[in-house]
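Sat 14:20. Reprocessing the chain from the morning session after the first attempt stalled halfway. Input below, unchanged.
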Amino acid sequence: MAFKVRRVGHIVLRVKDMERSKRFFKEVLGFPEVAHNERGMVFFSTDVKDNHHMLALMPGKEGANMPTSDQIGMEHVSFELGSFAEMQDAYRTFQENGVKICGTVFHGISKSIYFHDPDGNMLEVYCNVPEDEYRKSVPNPYSRYGSIEAELEGKVAQMEGSVAP
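Finished this time. Tokens:
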């Protein structure tokens, strides 16, 4: 093969209410708006030097159906955070803003919070767990090993074998 995909460059979400979605991605997830175009699209990036845009929103057609969990297509979009402390901040921010949290999970390789955007698209924020850490506790680092809600709430310390920096 003569080519190799380097990375996922960006995602584009079709949204029902542009202003509502802009507020959600700017105020709840902290994405800086970097551009817009004549078609009504809005572009966001946390680092325009590295990636001119990571996310774009485009207006959906009037009367379009909302996504459902049983449709074929994208299951969710994931955004990496830098630390477990940032995940705890995200969890608190989601709760303060009434974001529908679908679940929290220790996967082995990562810890995740799954939630919905205003249009019902499933999103995820996660932080990585170092290999030397998760190898202590899980046989398959690509599986599900329970909720981390108590850890996110600070009720318990991070479980041994799952400590994310």
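Strands lie at 11-15, 33-36, 42-44, 55-59, 77-80, 101-106, 110-116, 122-128.
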